[in-house]
User: Fold these one by one.
Assistant:
Number 1:
Amino acid sequence: MSTFKAPKGTYDLLPPDSASYLAVREAIAAPLRNSGYGYVETPGFENVELFSRGVGESTDIVTKEMYAFTTRGGDRLALRPEGTASVLRAALEANLHKAGNLPVKLWYSGSYYRYERPQKGRYRHFSQVGAEAIGAEDPALDAELIILADQAYRSLGLKEFRILLNSLGDKECRPVYRAALQDFLRGLDLDEETRRRIDINPLRVLDDKRDDVQKQLVGAPMLRDYLCDACKAYHEQVRELLTTEGVAYEDDPKLVRGLDYYTRTTFEFVHDGLGSQSAVGGGGRYDGLSEMIGGPALPSVGWALGVDRTVLALEAEGVTLDLPPATSVFAVPLGEEARRVLFAKVTELRRAGVAADFSYGGKGLKGAMKNANRSGARFTVVAGERDLAEGVVQLKDMESGEQEAVAVESVVDVLKGKLDTQARTAQ
Ligand code: HAM
């Protein structure tokens, strides 16, 4: 039998690289936890309707990319292609919006699924960390979210990302713009599919990457010129807050997102080292989504940052994260008696919070020391029959190469002391 491979468009996260994924998730979550966002977790699948109504019937995500299926019981479900609709569904279902404490601020982290054409940075299974602030219309909330994403990226050491900002207007001004854009687009020389898109989702035509289309789009009406006074004033306030807080952004009047629920503020974080899949994160306001999925009017805003692409961005910038070593102490027993003694010491170290590991499988000194080296441990504890007869173990500093005999009873305390000193000098 041939061995199994991970399905097309997916990959496994394995040590040591998996450590940077965890660190990225953690770095994105930290500013959210620190800003009043509570953790939410929803199922990996939902009723397919939630996404077709929420994300939009005309989007690529719903029409081409959703993993939709019928269960044995006859339910139509879909693996979640994104998090916003699910999180809002969960908040509505639990009546969080009625607890009188708006906005409801939630963050999440998990797997998402889109049946896309796989390429570097574009997978069929990928990870996002996201945040949603539900039930408040306040430019400071939009600004808060953008500032927190910026803070997360900076805390990781990323520098070469840009923030693109736009306003998509609201239910007053966008229909007027939409009609004007449709008029303009109908006068162009476009293929069948693109012509169909003019009727269903004309704003997406602006996003067409093909040169011949882009050339014809010169002179297209811009949404910016159609924004109503309320949308203009709102957008101006978001921009001002970002500027005051020193968060640089670029106005991108052509920024259209791939999901239909957006109103007013929309933004994308792009990284220039990533080639065609340059969006590392994106989000915006979705004031009408709650009503679209059967809830009350709840103006909301949020974003999701892609963990996979953020890791690629780190690689592109050559940033190596300063991760604590997985193992601080590695124990190498030589003989049965030493196995018993050192196993107990490793357990004691772990219970004291010291990251410790053990040489399993009865390896000889050479093989065991190789493992000790690979573990990245700063200290190795070696003990053989003769050491134990003298009541000592050999403690080796793997950085300096120095070795000393330490009494068996005091080795845990000595190690704790040395690791403390090392941590203090590293600060
Ligand atoms: P999105 O722009 O579709 O927005 O996805 C956000 C991020 O997820 C992207 O910028 C990208 O980093 C990552 N991503 C998306 N698709 C893939 C893929 N196939 N492979 C790898 N990474 C991918 C949303 O999902 C919205 N729910 C964001 C939001 C939250 N808006 C409001 N609240």
Number 2:
Amino acid sequence: MPGAEEFVVTPYEVRGRVDYDRLRELFGTQELTAALLERIRRLAGGELHPLLARGIYYTHRDLGGLLDAFEGGRPFFLYSGRGPSGPLHTSHLAQFEICRWLQERLGVPMYIQITDDEKFWSRAGLTREETIRWGFENLYDILALGFDPKTTRVFFDSKSIAALYPLAIRVARKIPYSSVKAVFGLEPSTNIGWIFYTALQTVPCFWPSWAERTSVPCLIPCGIDQDPHFRLTRDIAEGLGYPKPALLHSRMVPGLLGEAAMSTTGGSPENALFLNDPPQAVERKVRNAFTGGRATVEEQRRLGATPEVCSVWALWKSRFAESEEVFTRVTADCRSGKMLCGECKGLLLERVHRFYQAHEAAREKVKGWAESTIITSPPAGLES
Ligand code: TRP
């Protein structure tokens, strides 16, 4: 993708200023239309989730078909995952927050994949001990969002391999090396674990169908950077007798420093609010964050600021504005120059500190049951 607006989005690299309309065309995903959002709202009851209402989720694959089936009485399951390369930051929560909301509102099961193997293969600097430790730390953070222990199951790759492997064998035979190379841009020196890995990310899409011996549709809310994995999944699904997973894609939330997307590998720790940051670090990062403010107070009062380029506004939008009313007011007062950046940051920080406190308490509770959600063996009667 040459040119002035160069950007790269793959599961292993997000770089540059992403043009999301162009990305949708490049990836060939479908627009999340107002009509589809209205259908979700109706099925879920009440207000649409802010991540949907505010356009953070913006494209999909086959969502309409999945909703048709659901309305016709055919349940689906949710699937999403996390590569445990370090602590989660607040923007990582978007994909799980939307899953939690759909689980609660639609009463559907959730499968979470923790890919300690993937990150060991794709990040040369990480040890096995680290990817396992972060796997558990990340899992606690995810479950603490409020997932239902009764209908949430986890594939923690290295612990769940006996459950995953029978399907991985079948999946891997269907994926040509040339596709993996083309889709992920891997090098001749890439280790073979990483080349194989995408097979394991596909397995949870099919696992419930396999376990229940019937076709169970799958919906994957994820960052759009993960779409390439699931294009491979969708190509091979029918050949294995499983439904193609549907997808719901989000934009990548911009980093606090204002340039690259937060998921950029090896980015500065100052670029995001990590869930294990102490309050002083949270305070410092927000206070130093890049904004859409003007050079002087006088100018900002007169001309207003630009929320669309502001990393603090992105935090309000993606997580911390608790109501549409608050979000609309913050946005309007920023644009008009009524509220300056320092005040805005202070108001945001109140919300962030409150969230961290509540999250810490929820996380401690989750530790008591988190391990019991991990699937460790294949479904009874299969592959024995
Ligand atoms: N590859 C993802 C990551 O690096 C982890 C992952 C596994 C995932 N399964 C998924 C992400 C399903 C989204 C949906 O973080």
Number 3:
Amino acid sequence: MKLIDNHGRVLRDLRVSITPRCNYHCVYCHPLGMEMSDPPGTVTTGDVRHFLRAAANLGMDAVRFTGGEPLVRRELPEMIAAAAATPGVRDVAVTTNGTLFRRRHRELLDAGLRRVNFSLDAVDPGVFRRLTRGGEVAQVWDAIELALELELHPVKLNAVVIGGVNDGEVVRLAQLSVDRPLHVRFIEYMHLNNAPADEYRRQFVSGAETRRRIEERFGALAEVPTDPSSPARVWKVPGGLGTVGFINSVSEPFCSNCTRLRLTSDKKIRPCLLTDLEFDVAPAFEADDPVRALQEALLFVAGKKPRQGSTLPTMRERVMLGIGG
Ligand code: SAM
């Protein structure tokens, strides 16, 4: 069975946000202030198990745990194990800031985790500290090196490029893909943090501009063939061990290829990152047959997935932290 929306897209990828908490406060992601504990009603391991079973029954086969910071959630290994044990799920991954990876990697791997994406927006410690509002880049780099040692290939690094903040770092970030088998993906800054619109416009840097800066330093990049449904266009610095990718969500929206649905940590399904549309499915988790009720909810929400989202700066009901990137 396949989950097909009204625009003919086959929905296969799930992003499951398991907590609104994060131990970083990245400027592009959320305003200051942080939840100290998960509010009542936050998804449990049992909820995740039911949800993934329902989604997999409909053909959704790739799961990424996110947040907030997923590694602050004690139950993450149980959730990974539940995902890995769901018939039909072929890919279980986590997106993390890496701070807790060394401490928790063994239990995550034992649970079945094989793929990790790290957010790394700067190599320079000062730039990194400003961008994350206090983070230590050495700690993240240590996690990335550990992932390489553990051969969790492909190890992907996500960098959101923001003018006047970390755009001076793009060459150093690209260099990481030359020296190591790392896959650095430059993501266009989306207006998902309710920053003032004029400030956002000033700070926006297109993927084309980021690429120009990288080619200025390394020469022409060589294209690496990728799955056309992937949001990233991928290239290689000639002779590099890894790749550089560009996710140009704003300047070249890829809505026609979008295969994603998101479950927020407070049990809402979001059919599109770039609209405020979301559907409260908490009652389905309480039904006598939650898997069946969630399947119905997924079919309903798939039917509401908009053809495209809006990349214009606008005040959002939720910032990225609460959605799960
Ligand atoms: N805490 C984890 C982390 O740091 O990777 C997972 C959550 S974070 C919201 C997931 C991803 O969303 C990160 O890779 C981050 O770069 C991306 N992201 C957050 N805000 C964004 C924005 N305004 N524009 C583009 N990407 C954004």
Number 4:
Amino acid sequence: MVDADKKVNVPPNFIRNIIIEDLERGKNEGRVHTRFPPEPNGYLHIGHAKSICLNFGLAHEFEGLCNLRFDDTNPLKEEEEYIRAIQEDVRWLEFDWEDRLFFASDYFDQLYEWAILLIKKGKAYVDDLNADEIREYRGTLTKPGKESPYRNRSVEENLDLFERMKAGEFKNGEKVLRAKIDMNSGNLNMRDPVMYRILHAPHPRIGDEWCIYPMYDWAHGQSDSIEGITHSICTLEFEDHRPLYDWFIRELDVHAPQQIEFARLDLTYTLLSKRKLLKLVQDKHVDGWDDPRMPTISGIRRRGYTPAAIRDFCERIGVAKSNSVVEISLLEHCLRENLNKTAPRVMAVLRPLKVVLTNYPADQVEELDAENNPEDPAMGKRKIPFCRELYIEQSDFMEDPPKKYFRLAPGREVRLKHAYIIKCEKVLKDPQSGEVTELHCSFDPDTRSGSSGEDRKVKGTLHWVSAPHAIQTEIRLYDHLFKSPDPNDVPEGEDFLSNLNPDSLEILNGMVEPSLQNAESGMRFQFLRHGYFCVDNKFSRPGKPVFNRTVSLRDSWARIQKNQNG
Ligand code: ATP
Ligand code: MG
């Protein structure tokens, strides 16, 4: 489990209340045992983080256990790469399944035996209808189902055919095993669901041992039962599957986990469907599953998110019984709160404009003191070089500024952070384009920060870097991957791809202070007046960091809240 100080507090919610009641009644001998059951057919996303925090969080709170179990029943879509990545992501969120890493494929023998038991009880049969026919016969919510002509095969015939399915005598799709329940049920899941299908395909974990594979609905509940899970927490779309899971458990007469459904996380400007995320990866709309614009755990990790911010977010959104969409600005707010306390502040110029201090000695370099985080004096200070040639931000100068512009302009003064007050004396321009190329300024030697001259006040304070000392680096700015709050909201005949934001990535050549030269992959900083940035773990080279903007400083969530509170 996570350290006590890192643990997720699951705030009161209906699932927690059910567990408390169960414990009071002495159900499950006072045990609480949950699991996080991903299918290894893609990378985990922030929606899965909600489920992970809930399952591991509840187990932690009630001194129970939480398993990690891969529901690996579909060899066509599942890969070893996903199994590895999912474990890395859960660990990164700082949850620990200890020695309880399981796979549904561990239970294939048991599931096969149980299928035979159901056949012997007359509760399962081999069907020769093909997939289309099965769909056709199933009917709809308004149309009753129709029984398959093979539904009443004898137990002996079913046993024989099922064994031969397993032995590889039939081709893909030629036969299936179905539960014999009720073709007139109001719940379509109960109309003789398929339990096994024939798939001549090797399994990523157990090779070509099997050519029949259990369907998810047959494997999932039984896997929970085998592991002694007490509370099977899942998302709302499985509510209609619960009667089927209960039916299997009853017919097999085995331990009955209690399924509880909650609303899945949905976020504005974000898609949380592995199928659609896979499409973005396969069609190269993004640079892999860990592209910093992806809502995957590996993407937001690369972007610079912290595990603490994600856990805080999952705590704040709570757990409900009906679907809703959460503002992505809340996630960003949690991140800023966390990074504000932990990320050292440094100076970086994203779009440089050269400044020459004409009254500063050409060969002089001063080492100025700069605090690393005013929120936390324990983070100490560092030295930053100051000299005659500097860079400031292009947007911090205007030749003809409007009234409330307090940055640099001809004849105006500003303070350079941690340094001196300077005054703009002359503007140099490109004769052809008219573009400003350089500023000549004077500095006031009596105004050095940290000295008594610090008291002289001017309205604007700018960040800067020393031109000969700065490190030129690639800085990558990100915006939402989708233009619209609901990426699926598209005109008829189009799909979510038409909502892709063409400006979601902007690559700049910036200048950062020299202390960042050896910043290592994953290190996070606040670039003063810009936002939070993280050293990219893919494009950075030793001595040549590349920075991802994690999130800007502007906090639209705080504004939303302020407006709500009047
Ligand atoms: P997707 O629809 O993206 O493919 P999934 O539900 O099929 O997701 P699984 O690997 O089966 O993905 O999910 C593992 C667990 O995570 C399940 O218990 C599932 O209910 C939960 N989960 C998946 N997506 C979300 C979400 N958006 N919010 C909360 N929990 C989720
Ligand atoms: Mg699923």
